[in-house]
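ARCHIVE CARD
Drawer: 12
Card no.: 0347
Subject: one protein chain, sequence and derived structure
Cross-reference: see card 0346
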Amino acid sequence: MPLFHHEAPPPPPDPDDAGDTPAAMRAALAEVNRTVNRAAGRLPVEATVEARRVGDVLAAILTEADTRPLDMSATVAVRSTIEDYLPTTIRAYLAVDAAAVDVPRPGGATPRQSLLEQLDALADSSNRLRDAARQQDADALLTQGSFLRTKFARSDLEL
């Protein structure tokens, strides 16, 4: 009989959830970053900077997710921002005729202003996600401390 019990390898990931791993989302984010970099000459400078900031915050969230998994709502929000919201915003602006980016639309905003507003909203959302994840970590640490104090209180250790 072997000295060590070897566990069976983990089951393969569910194909529906394969994109929810930090590694998969990091790969998708890298593609979005390449899209932003390729489009940098056609985007307003401030939009390029803001899109990169959003990417940086998302990358930080994913790095932290390597040690502490994201909850389901954060996973959905991060994945949606990476795979839909950010690239769709960039593509929609790039589809506008360059001569029309500063022409006010019926709502009063120009496409350039709309792009900047949307990127600002994505930056705010990403920052809130990062802050919430960090708050969750702090709460988990406090909960663990309370558990340990209770578990190892003097009365528990007395024989």
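Annotation on reverse: DSSP finds five helices and no strands in the chain. The two ends are 37 Å apart (CA to CA).
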